[in-house]
Amino acid sequence: MNDKTAFSERLAAAMRAAGYEPRPAVLEREFNLRYWGKPVTLQGVRRWLCGEALPKQEKLQVLAEWLEIEPHVLRYGEAVGRQIRESRGKWETSISGEERVVIQRYLELPVEQRKVVAQVIQAFARAYPVESKQDTELLDHE
Length: 142
What we know:
The protein is 74% helix and 0% strand.
């Protein structure tokens, strides 16, 4: 089984698990409701479901968030997902309780409101570029 076919099976299974029929029309509608970029066509999502194509990373992120599955698990399978989750703890332990609350509240917002919040944060980041020690450490590990 190739990567595209395996991905299509995981995508269909994730859609079923989330309560959606794995059909192109359903996928197109639900994906485009959540995606900020140029809408994906019915033909494009059909190719994902038929194992003919893989979504780009930004689209994979949207799919994973919508279907409540880790992006790496959706793309590569459960074995890789376990490895990713194991190393994730470092970031989670480095944020304060207040930051956790803010992140949780952000995640609970409707998609449209999260878009607005993200745009505000990006505007601040562009207006006030500061490279912190933590940013430097993160870049060193990539």
